[in-house]
Write the structure tokens for this entry.
Amino acid sequence: MFQPVIFREYDIRGVYNQQFDDDFARLLARAYVVYMKNEKNISNPTVAIGCDARESSPAIVKSLAKGLMESGANVIHLGLVTTPVCYFSTFEVAGVQGAFQVTGSHNPPEYNGFKISVGKGTIFGVEIQKLLHIIQKGQYIDGQGTEKTIDIKPTYYDRYKKEFGTIKNIKFVLDCGNGAGGSVVRGLFNAVGLTPTILFEEPDGRFPNHHPDPTVEENLEDLKKQVAKEGAVCGIGFDGDADRIGVVDHTGRMVYGDELMVIISRAILAEQKGAKIIGDVKCSDRMYQDVAKHGGVPIMWKTGHSLVKEKIKVEKAPFGGEMSGHVFFADRNYGYDDAPYAALRLVEILAKTGKTIPELLEGLPPAFNTPEIRIDTTEEKKVLIVQKMIEAFPDKPGADYKVDFTDGIRLSFKDGWALCRSSNTQPVVVVRYESNTQAGLDAIRNRVEAVVNKYL
């Protein structure tokens, strides 16, 4: 049982036992083996499987492994790991030709899904739809595969101990949100000489303390309090599968994803002048302008972790990221989104410079802006609303705005900008606004919401 709507732009995700069940996981695994044969000419692939802490994950993993082995694939179980550790296996475990991470990411506990690697990259868009078409045809490969379990964590820790050496042990706080991050962060940070305070470290798929989305400010309250209590230099939160990062500075102010990108891109551009830096359509104009000011080449791209990852590869960029907290390092790392690794890079900058986050952002023009605003609606209405926005703001000469259709619609006014796009993962419309004055922000927001609110 499954609903085709779970096949999204860059992963497969839905409500467990409503939109898909265990048998779907088995069929998806069988379709994957057909895909590997058809698209990559690989028979009997070796496939790693990792999972997050959700209560449905073990049953899904079992069905996934069963389907893979029924089709002749050889399964390597990683157990409860972060999505980045699952990606890591495709680079560092001998013989691995692809991987599944069973995860609902930052969605509520009743959700689960699949992030799918083929070779050393994740598939998205048309390639994910090919798996749906194989399932609909129902033509599979029969075989008899094998399975084994490995402990990948020592290899993961050792890799980054070699990269970072020993980082000066400054005072900071981590919040795992009871997600998969708790399975690796203590070992990772201790390996490079760091001893952070860690909140909600125990993986628990019910997320009893707060929802595991560190880009929503209300989820950072415990982190802010602990930073204040300890006088820490910053607090860092992870989402449910630890591929997204959220940050608060020493005063407890939430640091937006594009501000984090400014800090990191400045450090990278100090060493690599002229490098390309990739951002998504939700990042602010001031971030793109700051990249250019510091000698980089800013590139705006579509939202979506697989889409930005692929763009970084195509452009040979050392770094990129999204407003939503996915950040990708291809200068010293593998180019995928690993939030604990990103946290190490931020702590490394803080430790080396001795500066606070506000000091590291010095020179970035002040702005009046909103975070990413996610408006709950339906799958149908989220598409309709963006279409109505495009109709309301046509791309025509003489308009007091410029239009960009890279992903949804982004409007640039003389004093700010607005974005309206439909989420690829949930029945949600995403909007964001920014201006150089509060009055400008209010005017832009009112103008856009006059259209959006009409169709909610």
User: Anything to note?
Assistant: The mean pLDDT is 96. The longest helix spans residues 22-40. The CA atoms of residues 382 and 429 lie 5 Å apart.
